[in-house]
């Protein structure tokens, strides 16, 4: 009589102990995962803060607009001119007309959730880092009215989310990359008032969403590709190609275009 009783008593605590152990292990595993996730988020935020602080050190900031960029804080989301998403990851850098000078650091590429990089109307110099092509969530890249030199990186053609690319009024040289034709969501492409040379790539005609294309005041040569002119059918409302070395172009009428500005037809 006692043996079954003993076995029964022993079996109940045994199964209960197994269940408790499994429950404890599950709770511990869940806790570890939560901790690791929080740690990863914190590490990501710290990494983005480190990147932006490195950029701050590379710039001259006479107006002290970057005073709040404190690397000792947990993340950069409380810094002025920085916007984060709900995961405390940087999605906007808004520093237009801030009086900044100096180069762009290549490590900006590691701001993996960045959507808006607004650095227009400053005195930034040096080249546009090719690494910016890694910003695969970027919607707007505004670097206009600075002192940037060198070529437009071909890697920018990899940012398929880009809708606004404004690099005008710099000192950029070299050709317009044909890879920009991969930007199928681009609405604004403004590269005017640089020293760009070579021909206008016909691949730009692939951007059916393009509404404004301004290439004036450069050193472009050749003719305007028919693929570009065909964009007026899909919604191009502004095309400015004047003050280049283009040949054989005439004013177009009969297209759904608000403004086409170009040089007069060259005659013999």
UniProtKB/TrEMBL annotation:
<protein>
    <recommendedName>
        <fullName>Leucine-rich repeat-containing N-terminal plant-type domain-containing protein</fullName>
    </recommendedName>
</protein>
<dbReference type="Pfam" id="PF23598">
    <property type="entry name" value="LRR_14"/>
</dbReference>
<keyword id="KW-0732">Signal</keyword>
<keyword id="KW-0433">Leucine-rich repeat</keyword>
<dbReference type="Pfam" id="PF08263">
    <property type="entry name" value="LRRNT_2"/>
</dbReference>
<keyword id="KW-0677">Repeat</keyword>
<feature type="domain" description="Leucine-rich repeat-containing N-terminal plant-type">
    <location>
        <begin position="46"/>
        <end position="85"/>
    </location>
</feature>
<dbReference type="InterPro" id="IPR055414">
    <property type="entry name" value="LRR_R13L4/SHOC2-like"/>
</dbReference>
<dbReference type="InterPro" id="IPR013210">
    <property type="entry name" value="LRR_N_plant-typ"/>
</dbReference>
<feature type="domain" description="Disease resistance R13L4/SHOC-2-like LRR">
    <location>
        <begin position="105"/>
        <end position="216"/>
    </location>
</feature>
<dbReference type="InterPro" id="IPR032675">
    <property type="entry name" value="LRR_dom_sf"/>
</dbReference>
